Amino acid sequence: MEKLVPRISIWGLFVLLFTCTSNLFIEEINAQNWLNGHATFYGVNQDPSTFGGACGYDNPYHAGFGAHTTALSSALFRNGQACGACYRVRCNRQLDRKWCLPHGAVTVTATNFCPPNNHGGWCDAPRQHFDMSMPAFLRIARQGNEGVVPVLYTRVACRRRGGVRFTLKGQANFNMVMISNVGGSGDIKSVSIRGSRTKNWIPMYRNWGVNWQSRNDLRSQTLSFRVTLVDGKTMEFINIVPSAWKFGQTFASRRQFY
Description:
mainly beta
């Protein structure tokens, strides 16, 4: 007698694959600490290389971030301490199936501040809000929507190509350094500097965003930096800047946070 072999139609196979994919998607969300927020976009006709914003990055492309950047509401920005942090953001289709792309997700780097208007705006405290560059926003939502979508977000490790970069600014006795292309948690908690004629590490102070300053005259000295991230990881970049350095130059390390 011929055995009866169950057959699955093409439609049934599609439903099965879709169900499995959806379950994996839900399991991935449940496996991490996802929080609720909202997202908008800015810079429709703006060159993405100008998205440095309140964190002080001269150019996100040169800083190693590309176009997937975001401004953060005050609840997330932490007075600039969040600059450089990375977030995985997903459009929440459970709340908005019309405008959210299926499985729409993007990893963004915090480079800017979304100022509150104190009149119930999206960036007013205590709202958790991402005002994304348009290239990032279009990874999670359809073009042509009303401009705001519900999202789920979580902190993720920043993955950078190459090492941490140090750009020297300032003049005479005022030294300022912009630290960019930082991996790991991405957000910097503290920085110290040491010259070749300096015995001890000198604490630097956040000037704004990712720019750190000191008032010591370290010209004509080889410079080293000690950088501590918000997650507690510390790394020393010894003699990363040669003694012949000039203001405006950028020096890249071969070392990176992971």
